[in-house]
């Protein structure tokens, strides 16, 4: 290639449409990171039984509490996590975790779900940028674009409880 002062990784032969090997590697790395991001997008949940389980009930019969009722029996501690990319997706992630924990509580025969903690963990940040510069005998033109994406793992903790009927 001609010695025009442009470093080799940034030189593009427009007539032949050739792109240097380094750009192809960057595209492959970006694809690999994107696939890893999708693989990491799995939701997790777990439970630790701490009391007496009862016969399963329908999830719609499980009442969600944000404050502890006056009388209840603890059946299990439930944990859930789910990835989220935006704040709007974060709200959906929280709703899905609550629905998941309601289902777990229902299987244990709990008629209540006492929400305790919600938190965020940064799982992955991905950033990329692309730039191009063209030189002519009259001047130069530069164009660039960049972006980043952060994935936050939402975490929730709740207790599956049995609230006795009021007498």
Overall average pLDDT: 75
Main β-sheet, spatial strand arrangement: 1-3-5-4-2
Radius of gyration: 27 Å
Q: Please state the structural category.
A: alpha+beta
Order of helices and strands: HEEEHEE
Characteristics:
167 residues; alpha+beta; 2 domains; five-stranded mixed β-sheet; 2 helices; 5 strands; 24% helix; rod-shaped
Summary, kept brief:
This protein is of the alpha+beta class.
Tell me what you see in this structure.
- The chain has 167 residues and is an alpha+beta fold.
- The chain has 2 domains: 1-39, no CATH class; 42-162, no CATH class.
- It has helices spanning 21-39, 87-107; strands spanning 44-49, 63-65, 73-84, 112-135, 140-162.
- Strands 1-3-5-4-2 form a 5-stranded mixed beta sheet, with helices on one face.
- The longest helix has 21 residues, at 87-107.
- The chain starts with 20 loop residues before the first helix and ends in a 5-residue tail after the last strand.
